Amino acid sequence: MNILIIGGGGVVGQKLGAKLLERGTLDGKAISKLVLADIVDPAPMDGAETTTCDIADPASVAACITPETDVIFLLAAIVSAHAEQDFDLGYKINLMGTWNVLERARALGTVPKVVFTSSIAVYGGEAKDPLGDWSQMNSQGSYGVQKAMGELLVNDFSRKGFVDGRGFRLPTISVRPGKPNRAASSFMSSILREPLNGQEAICPVGKDYLHYYLSPRKCVENLIKGAEIAKADLGHNVCMQMPGKMWSIGQLVDAMEKVAGPEPLKLIRWESQPEIEAIVKGWRYDIHADKALALGLTADDSFEDNVRYYLEDDKPQA
Predict the structure, then answer these.
(1) What is the pLDDT of residues 152-191, one digit of tens each?
(2) 283 lies in which domain range?
């Protein structure tokens, strides 16, 4: 089996690549080739090839997706705050990039499997709680609108038999390793990651702010399970909510204290940032993932697990 991860240089892409290599199989078939592709050459990984791919450029996409490509994980995107600030670039990457990948897959005529990552940012506006697979997508930000459009494309290309598609609306992934990015949700990892590493972090919202979370470890497990779901079991809508859990910022901090003690809490500064609050307070959190749960995908049992996974998998060693 030949697998391509577009967005293979990112946190989830790197972890997904490593897990697939560890398994050696996908859907019961041996992985013969794994390619990590991104806008810049991803970090090298033993057992995988790396290449550059600009999904906004059809020629670049065509060079990456070959007739031998069996499975495409489409993870690449520009994130929420960036897409909000740069309207044109958001649509160029998040909408037209998705179109370019699907159109290349269609042109091959081989019906590759496409696993698309959407986002809980598709929810918003006047849709009624609780939200889930059949809720109206009514994002109040450009990033969510672009992801909603991507879901519709994946559904239509799948309906026409051009690809074997499936899409998953990711919860906010926390605790993410690395450095803060331009996502409005970036602080939802940094207020834990930085203090766990002995560094100060700023929280721009109050402790009562509620959100919907999943750990990187569970996200990767779910993407692999999602790729292995039989096409017949997906139904007419091949895109669905990935399971997560709702917690407040205060509960996240309490979980960190339970796992790592009281010292990291002293490194959090609570400072309101209206430009971030304006985005994240438009997001929704009362979200249910009934379809994915029935298909075998899972959420973390507690946020203490999320903290432990970061310490086990990602915390830099002194």
Answers:
(1) 999 999 999 999 999 999 999 999 998 888 788 899 999 9
(2) 184-211+245-287+300-313
